[in-house]
Amino acid sequence: MALLEIDQLSVAFDTEGDTVTVVDRVGFDVEAGETLGIVGESGCGKSVTALTIMGLLPKPSGRVQGGDIRFRGESLPNLPPERMRDIRGNRIAMIFQEPMTALNPVHRIGRQLAETYALHQADLPDEAVYRRTLGLLEQVGIPAPEQRLREYPHQLSGGMRQRVMIAIALASKPDILIADEPTTALDVTIQAQILELLRELQRETGMAIIFITHDLGVIAELCSRVVVMYAGRVAEQAPIEQLFAHPVHPYTRGLLASIPRLEDEPKTMLTTIPGVVPSIEELPSGCRFANRCPYVKDLCNRDAPELLAASQGHQVACHRWREVDAVALEKWGS
Amino acid sequence: MTSYFIRRFLLIIPTFIGVTILVFTLTRLVPGGPIERMLSEAALASAGETSTVSDYDGRGGSMLSDEQLADLEAYYGFDKPVVVGYFEWLGKVLVLDLGRSTRYNDPVWETIRDRLPVSIFYGVCTLIITYGVCIPLGIYKAIRHKSVFDNLTSAVVFAGYAIPNYVVAIFLLTAFAANLEWFPLGGFVSDDFADFTLMEKIADLFNHAALPLIAYVAGSFAFTTMLMKNSLMDNLAAEYVRTAVAKGLDFRRAIFGHAFRNSLIPIATSFGNNISLIITGSFLIEKIFNIDGFGLLGFESLVERDYPVVMGILVISALLFLIGNILSDICVAIVDPRVKFGSGESGQ
Question: What domains are there in chain B, each with its CATH number?
Answer without folding.
Answer: 20-97 (no CATH), 114-335 (1.10.3720.10)
